[in-house]
C-alpha cells in the first residue's frame, strides 16, 4: 500500500489521447496515469469511451493525437504484441478465447513453455495452468477445450491468462460481471497481491461497491472526455454518480405529450434460463417506453424474444390482446410488430443492395403484382419514404453503404414503418450516429408515438432514455429492477437501479 | 487436436490420463463441480473421431478381403498404398490450410504444373541429375503456393476466390506450356521412373515419403508454437490478433507448405505414371478437400489433425480400390464417397452437440 514518492514516473500514462471513428469522437483529449502499487478505477456510463481507452492501452487502437508513455518514455503501442512487451495484460469485457483449443493453450498461446528443441512442454504448460487456477481457487481442467465453458469460466480463463503474464499493468474491463461472490473475492485478492508487488491495476466496473472496496483512485469519464481523478477515500457513491452523469438533460429531445391509448403490448413472466427471468411489462398506444440498463443486462434479448427472433421458455407475449406464438417473427409482423435491431449493419440492412430495395424489403409482396416486383413501384414507394424521413442520399439506387450511419438508420426505420406497425421496437436507435441526425431520429420516434404507435426503445444512453420515454423500465442482470415514470426518472435513479443498488431506486 | 498416439507423437503419450488432479480444491469447489464433471471429455471425443475412420477402414478392408482374399495380397496392398500416396500428401497440405480457416482449390493444377515441369526438364535438359529435377518440381509448387499465399494474406482476398482463380490460371499456364504435347516414359530416365518400384521395409518408396510427410506435419502442428498458432488463427482470428499472433504470416505459411507438397505430389506423379500432359490432376482438389473433411478437419478452421486427414485419404483410396472387387459399379463409387462425407460431417455435428452438452454440465448461471 505504500505510495512511491512523486518523482517515480507512472508505470503507464495516456497523455492527451484522442480517437475518432468516423464522425464519432470516442476519446477526446483524455489523460490517465497508472502508478506503481495502485488499483485505479475507471468509471463512466455506457459509451463514455472506457472500452476505447482500454483498447488504446492494449495496442488495438492507435491514438489519433496524443501518446502513450511507459515509465515516462513515449512509447508507440501499434499492436497488441507491443503492449504485451511493455508489460500490459488486458482482460477484455468480451472473452476472447479459442473455442477449439484447450484451456491451457488458451492461457499460454504464443508463450507456451518450451522444452528442448523449442518444442512445447505440455506437462509444464498444464502444471502452470493448474497453478494459476489454484491461485484463483477454482477447479478447471486445463485439457478441456474452451468451447462450452460458461461465461464465468471463460472469464476465469481470461483472468488466468492475464495473471500468467506477470504484467506490470493489468487492465480489467468489467471482469466481475459474470462471476460469483467467491470468485470475485479471489479475483480481488489476486489484484491486491499484484498491487502490493508494485504492479498497477486498472479496474473497470459498474458496481460501485467494488470500486470502493478495491480501488485507491478513480478516474471518471463522460462522453469520451476526461472528467476527474480522485482518491476513492474522499468520495461517496453520490459524488461518483454525479460526476459520471453530471450534465443537464439536453433539450435535444422534442418529446410530444401524448395521451396514452389502449394497451398494445403485454408481456408476462417472460423467462429464458440464464438470460432473463420473470420479465413483465406493457406498452400502450402512443407511449414511448424505454428499456434501460447496462450492457449485458438482457435488454436486447428480451425484445428479440418479444419479436420472436429468440426463443423463450416461460411467459406470454400479447399484442392487442392476442397471444403471439413464440419464435415466429412472421407472426409478430402480421400482428403489427416491427423490430429495428441493434446492429443495423448486420441485422437491419442488406448493405450491398440499393437504398430503395432495402427500404421496400419488408413490403416486397405487397408491392408486387402477380408475384412480380416492378422496379417502378419500388422506386415510388422508396421515394415517398425518403421524403418523409428527410433522407440525405445521392440517388436512391445507390448502395446503402454510401450513406452515413444516421441515414442508414432512417432507411431501416422506413423499411419497418412502411409495414404500418402498431408496435415499433427500436434497439439502440442512435448508436454511432452524429448529434444532428440523432435529434432527427428522436423527432421521428416522438412523431410516431404522436400518431398512436406504441414504441418500445432499448437504449444505453441515459439522456435519450430520460428525454424520450414516458416510462423507464430498468433491467439489472436479467430482471426488471425498477419501473420509473417520466416525472421521477433522473440519471441518478436510473443508474442506481441499473447497477443493482437496492432500495435507492425511485 | 491430439493425434492418436499410435501414429507417433511420443511427446504426449498418455499424459492426459496420468496428470495429477487439479490442486487446491478451495471453497469454490462446489460451484465448479458441475463443470469438473466433463473432465477429459474433450480429448476423448477428438480421439474418437480418428478411431472412427480407422474402424471404417478396417471394416472395409475386412469385408473386401472376405469377398476377395486377393485384396490382401502383398502386391495388392502395395498398389493400394501407392495409390493413396498422392491423395495423402495433398490432404496433409490442404489440412494445414483448412485449419487456418482458408482453403486451397488450386492444388490439382499445381500438381499438374509441377508434374509437367518435371517432364519438360527431362526433355529439354537431358543431362540434369534426377534429384535436381525433382527439387525443381517441388520448387514450382512452392512458387505457386507463394502466389496463393500473398494474394490471400497480403491482398486479403478470400482464399476461396483466390484459389479458384489460380486453379484456372495455373492450369492455363500448363496448357499454354504443353500446347497439346504429351511427354512419355521414354522421355524420362529409368532411374526416375523406377522410384515407385523401390521398396523400403516392404513399403513402396512414395508411400514412405507420404508417411514421413504425415508424421513431420503432425509433429510440427502439435509441438511447435507456430503450429499451434495455426489452430488459434483458424479458431478465432480476432482473438489471435489480440494475443499478438502474426495472423497474416500464419495464414501465408500453410499456402506455401501446401504448394510445396502439391509440387512433391507432381514429382511423384511423373515418376509413377510416366505419361504427362496438361490435364494431370484435373478435378483433384475436391477429392483432397473431401479426404480432409472425412478425416475430421473442420472446414471452418481450428480443428482436425493431419493424421485424420491422412486416414481420410487412405479411406477414400481404399474405397476406390475395394468397390470394384466387391462388384459395385463405378457409378456407385462417387455416391459412396458423397455419403461418407455427409455421414462424417453429421457425425462431427453429433459429437460436438453431445460434447457441448456434457461439457456444459447443465449448469447455467443465475440470471
UniProtKB/TrEMBL annotation, chain A:
Pfam families with a match to the protein in the record: ABC_tran
Keywords (alphabetical) are: ATP-binding, Cell membrane, Membrane, Nucleotide-binding, Repeat, Sugar transport, Translocase, Transport
**Coiled coil (UniProt feature):** none
* Domain ABC transporter stretches: 12-248, 253-502
Q: Which domain of life is it from?
A: Bacteria
The transmembrane residues are none
Q: Which GO terms describe its molecular function?
A: ATP binding
UniProt protein name: Sugar ABC transporter ATP-binding protein
TrEMBL record, chain B:
Q: Which UniProt keywords apply?
A: Cell inner membrane, Cell membrane, Membrane, Transmembrane, Transmembrane helix, Transport
Query: What CDD domains is this protein classified in?
Result: TM_PBP1_transp_AraH_like (cd06579)
Q: Which residues cross the membrane?
A: 51-68, 80-99, 106-125, 131-152, 159-178, 198-221, 331-351
Q: Which domain of life is it from?
A: Bacteria
Q: How does it sit in the membrane?
A: Multi-pass membrane protein
Q: Which InterPro entries match?
A: ABC_transp_permease
Keyword Cell cycle listed? The answer is no
**Where, per UniProt, does this protein localize?**
Cell membrane
Chief subcellular site? membrane
* Disordered: annotated span: 1-41
Low complexity biased stretches: 7-18
A Pfam family that the UniProt record links to this protein: BPD_transp_2
Report whether Iron-sulfur shows up as a keyword of the record.
no
Q: State whether it acts alone or in a complex, and with which partners, per the record.
A: The complex is composed of two ATP-binding proteins (LsrA), two transmembrane proteins (LsrC and LsrD) and a solute-binding protein (LsrB).
The UniProt function text for this chain reads: Part of the ABC transporter complex LsrABCD involved in autoinducer 2 (AI-2) import. Probably responsible for the translocation of the substrate across the membrane.
The record ties this protein, via PANTHER family, to:
ABC TRANSPORTER PERMEASE PROTEIN YPHD-RELATED-RELATED, AUTOINDUCER 2 IMPORT SYSTEM PERMEASE PROTEIN LSRC
Write down what this protein is called: Autoinducer 2 import system permease protein LsrC
